[in-house]
Write a structure and sequence with these properties.
The protein is of the alpha/beta class. The chain folds into 2 domains: 6-172, Aldehyde Dehydrogenase, Chain A, domain 1 (3-Layer(aba) Sandwich); 174-313, Aldehyde Dehydrogenase, Chain A, domain 2. Helix content is 38%, strand content 16%. It contains 12 helices and 12 strands. The chain has helices at 6-21, 25-37, 43-56, 59-66, 91-99, 115-126, 152-162, 185-196, 218-221, 234-249, 283-291, 332-337; strands at 77-81, 103-107, 134-136, 145-149, 167-170, 174-178, 206-212, 255-256, 261-264, 274-280, 297-301, 311-313. The strands form 2 sheets. Strands 8-9-10-7-6-11-12 form a 7-stranded mixed β-sheet, sandwiched between helices. The longest helix has 16 residues, at 6-21. It is globular. It starts with 5 loop residues before the first helix and ends with a helix. Pfam families: LuxC (PF05893). InterPro entries: Ald_DH/histidinol_DH (IPR016161), CoA_reduct_LuxC (IPR008670). Keywords: NADP. One of its GO terms (molecular function) is acyl-CoA dehydrogenase activity.
């Protein structure tokens, strides 16, 4: 009887990486039709997501990742409740379940119900032993553990229904950027990717920037002009117009460059097409403030040396996590290895 091994999984995952670099006609058609199912999933953004996974699944990274993985020969059934805010956002959870030799019982998000099955179909072609490890379900039952991704509201529902089994239940998180005023035009331009990729809908997208007192905001706005075409997407434009009208009607002070609204606010979670900003006096004081907010922060984009227990990445890299960059700083592999 064939046994699923780490070597077989590494080969299959790496083949998938090569495939994503040159997808066939069938999968290309799935990409092209993605906007018909979800208007946020433009072809460009779907390809951006696929490129990120293609980059992630390189052979040295896979070999390093699997050093921490035990491939179980007694698979557990792991229910996965997936989000759909950006293309293929649940793919890493699925990979983690499969990598540990377990069975993924997948409840797809209605917002992302086409791409994942097409991608997993291709993965099964590379490793047929995975066919019995991937199950789709409208309603989860007969599971040994749960990984659920949702909002602060749905997390209470998840806690109620799934609290008696081993679980990872994720809530809302946002990412922030910390500027020290010494950033180059190029670095601020790269920060635009952290803000605008996937229209800013991901938890790794920057929704707020911290700037030193006296910071000239024009130094921030000018390098972002290269992203102005985002306003041509009708759903993004609707959000921009709506939030702008609210600020104008209520005489809320804000800055506007024609496609992004910048508002001073102590909150972390800004509305779509809005970026919050806040001034700080010194980095040591800011570091302590962010420490108290870590449970709400996914990652920090900066080139300063902050001492926090969340991912810190350079400009333009928030949406390029490694295999071992786990959501909410909870090691999914450790959780699955212990089942």
């Amino acid at each position: 009887m064939s046994i699923l091994t780490a070597e077989k999984l590494i080969i299959a995952f790496h083949k998938l990486s090569d495939f994503l670099n040159h997808p066939g006609d069938e999968f290309s058609n799935t990409i092209d039709s993605a906007p018909n199912h979800n208007a946020w999933f433009t072809v460009a953004e779907v390809r951006r997501s696929l490129a990120s996974f293609q980059e992630m699944l390189n052979l040295p990274a896979l070999e390093k990742w699997f050093e921490q993985i035990t491939v179980s020969q007694h698979p557990k059934k792991v229910g996965l409740i997936l989000a759909g805010n950006i293309p293929l956002v649940g793919f890493h959870d699925i990979l983690s379940v499969l990598a540990t030799g377990n069975i993924a019982i997948i409840k797809l998000s209605s917002a992302d119900s086409q791409l994942l099955p097409a991608l997993l179909k291709q993965l099964i072609e590379f490793e047929p032993l995975l066919a019995d490890r991937i199950i789709y379900a409208e309603r989860l039952k007969d599971f040994d553990a749960i990984i659920a991704t949702g909002s602060n509201n749905t997390s209470r529902y998840f806690d109620y229904y799934f609290g008696k089994v081993p679980n990872i239940i994720r809530k809302n998180r946002n990412s922030v950027a910390v500027l020290d005023g010494k950033e180059s035009i190029t670095e601020i331009g790269q920060l635009g990717h952290d803000i605008f990729d996937y229209f800013g809908l991901g938890c790794r997208n920057v929704s707020k920037i911290y700037v030193p007192e006296g910071y000239e905001l024009k130094n921030f706005f000018e390098p972002l002009e290269q992203y102005q075409d985002i306003i041509n997407h009708f759903k993004y434009n609707n959000n921009y117009d709506y939030n702008k009208s609210i600020y104008l009607v209520n005489t809320v002070q804000h800055f506007d460059n024609g496609f992004l609204l910048l508002k001073e606010d102590e909150g972390l979670s800004s509305p779509l097409a809005v970026l919050y900003f806040e001034h700080y006096k010194n980095l040591a004081e800011l570091n302590e403030k962010l420490k108290g907010m870590q449970d709400n922060i996914q990652c920090v984009v900066t080139h300063t040396a902050l001492k926090l227990d969340v991912d810190s990445v350079t400009f333009g890299q928030s949406q390029h996590p490694q295999l071992w960059d786990y959501a909410d700083n909870v090691n999914t592999i450790n959780f699955l290895n212990k089942l």
